[in-house]
């Protein structure tokens, strides 16, 4: 089940997010099992969208249905913020058939339409996302995910935010 706030967050429509919140939308309502903040991170939309949701009280550590926190979700994305959008829009024939109208920047993603993943990480960390947190099922840390994705800037940001450099997953991986 979808909700308007999660949809607006997914597309990075910051002004619509603010309007919905001002009108009384619940900031942590779930859209298809995930809070709006998670969707904004998943789609790699806009740092301003994350900020609007967090300033309205979104839980920066909210676990989505089996997918981790927004910080972990950001670290699963490609190096380009337009990559997750390309994945979403590759389903365009199905989306259009369902009656969804995609914003222009979703139909033809350009780097300039998106905040960098590092900028979005900075917003989450500034709002107290736990750099030392783990995914409960595996015990993997955000630093492990950043390393797996060869994300040097993310690794530097997590170290600066006091990530545990010696943490081990449930399978004793570091």
Runs in which pLDDT lies below 50 for 5 or more consecutive residues are none
Q: From the alpha-carbon coordinates, what is the Rg to the nearest angstrom?
A: 16 Å
The structural class is mainly alpha
Number of helices: 11
Beta strands, count: 2
Biggest sheet, open or closed, and with what strands and sense? 2 strands, antiparallel
Give the averaged pLDDT, no decimals.
80
The CA-CA distance between the termini, in Å, is 37 Å
Strand composition percent: under 5%
Give, in spatial order, the strands making up the sheet with the most strands.
1-2
The helix content, as a percent range, equals 40-55%
The outline comes out as globular
Oligomer: single chain
What is the element string, with H for helices and E for strands?
A: HHEEHHHHHHHHH
Structure description:
This protein has helices spanning 4-10, 14-22, 36-42, 47-55, 70-75, 82-89, 92-97, 104-107, 117-126, 142-148, 152-160; strands at 30-31, 34-35. The chain is globular. It is an all-alpha fold. The N and C termini lie far apart (37 Å). It has a two-stranded antiparallel ribbon. It has eleven helices and two strands.
